[in-house]
Specification:
This protein is α+β, with helices and mostly antiparallel strands. It has helices at 45-48, 51-65, 102-109, 114-133, 185-188, 195-211, 221-230, 242-251, 263-275, 318-338; strands at residues 7-8, 12-20, 24-31, 36-43, 75-82, 88-95, 100-101, 146-148, 154-156, 178-179, 346-347.
Length: 454
């Protein structure tokens, strides 16, 4: 068992456990060779027992290490070491980022003002754009995975192992709980994901910032996932500028093709929403950052994976919904055994093979945003029991699980620590009900999980 003062590979001394998640523990550590503070994520033994998983995990760490963007945690190293008790530690080394999780910021304030929200969204969307250009889909964008530093800089963390896992059954012994509160419809339906999946999740985060509550809640994760498939979110207050409400509606479109065509387009829309400028023209086509090695990058345009729209939301879900209902009881026990304290409502979802974008991607400039170097250290279904605004149930949910292509798919785990540590695409907006009363501070849990490993 790991404890402080353990030195991994003769180099990384574990100083303090700063977070625990479903994928492992995150430690503030010291790099004894370079004399700097780092974050080390140590994977759970159940994950490291799969050699194929470890091979993908390391390949994806190499891809993540090739990314350079001020809004993305940098990956420094990965490795494995034998422990004194006879066990083994497989780990990922990242920069240590001191910042406050957005989830805590929302909980403290009740809800954020429009200007602060749009600043956060613009930065997060720009970071996602950089990741998508590099062929990486985050898959778990949520408030606890956005750190706000003292100077207002937003850093997106925990890309990691979510994409490295290969979940084929919701009752798999190594199933990974995924976040239902911010899950895109195609992800809930078990269909291939794309950059548009992250844009939807960021839209849900934006909604939460402005109202103090996620767009959909329910008695259990399955109900929440189904609502993402079938329901429209409650209308935002008309006190919120129309441009901001339009941004949220577009990002939360059920059809991935009706959302913003890129993170850069969403970032620009967030900036113009508070300056009164015209919304940007949608970008089209895949873009790529650069190869991180032969045969290791998959270009991920925002709307690439799903081209059939909401008409097919229900198709593949009948049998999956039945299987999921049967597995709910066992799922609760599995989650209790693997989740960290206070994690989001989650649902295990089957992985699907992502759709690879056309070859020969063209580099396009991101609107008012560039990728720069940074210095280290900074749905026909049976009814679902329970009270839910949704009338029907289904979903072959899928969240943090990985997807695989012919070559390793990108995403290595990233994370960081709370600030208390010593160190560290387009369519018409949906309409629904009348504006709700301003949410109370006792609204449903936003995302109480610590900003740590997946």
């Amino acid at each position: 068992m790991l404890s402080s003062e353990v030195v991994l590979s003769g180099r990384y001394r574990l100083d303090e456990r700063v977070a625990t998640g479903g994928m492992g523990d995150v430690w503030r550590a010291s790099d004894l060779i370079l004399g700097r503070q780092v974050a080390v994520k140590v994977l759970l033994p159940a994950l490291v027992s799969d050699p194929d998983f470890i091979a993908r995990f390391r390949a994806e760490a190499r891809i993540m290490a090739a990314l350079r963007h001020p809004g993305i945690v940098q990956v420094f190293d990965c490795g494995a070491d034998d422990l004194p008790d006879g066990g083994r530690a497989d780990y990922l080394v990242m920069e240590f980022v001191a910042g406050e999780p957005l989830s805590k910021r929302i909980e403290a304030a009740g809800r954020l003002d429009v200007a602060e929200t749009m600043s956060i969204v613009a930065q997060a969307a720009a970071a996602l754009n950089a990741a998508h250009r590099g062929g990486i889909v985050h898959r778990d964008v949520k408030p606890s995975n956005l750190l706000v530093q003292e100077d207002g800089t937003v850093v997106l963390v925990d890309f990691g192992v979510a994409r490295s896992t290969d979940i084929t059954s919701i009752t798999s012994t190594n199933a990974v709980p995924g976040t239902a509160l911010y899950m895109a419809p195609e992800q809930a339906a078990g269909r291939p994901v794309s950059g548009a999946t992250d844009i939807y999740a960021l839209g849900a985060v934006t909604y939460c910032c402005l109202t103090g509550s996620p767009p959909f809640t329910g008695d259990n994760p399955l109900q929440v996932a189904v609502r993402h498939l079938d329901d429209e979110p409650p209308e935002l207050s008309h006190d919120i500028p129309e441009a901001v409400r339009a941004l949220v509606s577009r990002a939360l479109a059920k059809d991935p093709l009706e959302r913003f065509t890129s993170g850069a387009a969403m970032a620009e829309a967030a900036r113009t929403a508070v300056t009164g400028g015209e919304p940007p023209t949608a970008m089209a086509g895949p873009v790529a950052l650069r190869d991180a090695g032969p045969g290791t990058r998959t270009d991920v345009p925002a709307g690439a994976a799903v081209a059939d729209g909401r008409q097919r939301r229900r198709g593949p879900l009948v049998g999956a919904a039945a299987a999921m209902l049967v597995a709910l009881v066992g799922l609760g026990a599995a989650l209790a055994a693997t989740r960290g304290v206070g994690e989001d409502p989650a649902v295990n979802l089957p992985a699907t093979s992502p759709t690879t974008a056309p070859s020969g991607p063209v580099d396009l400039p991101a609107a008012n945003e560039q990728i720069t170097s940074v210095e280290p250290g900074r749905p026909d279904r049976p009814n679902v029991p329970g009270n839910s605004p949704s009338a029907s149930v289904s979903a072959t949910p899928s969240v943090q699980p990985s997807q695989t292509v012919n070559s390793p798919t990108p995403t290595a785990g990233v994370t960081t620590a709370p600030p208390t540590s010593a160190a560290p695409t387009t369519g018409a907006p949906p309409t629904t009900s009348a504006p709700p009363d301003p949410p109370a501070t006792s609204s449903p849990p936003l995302d109480p999980e610590v900003p740590a490993g997946g």
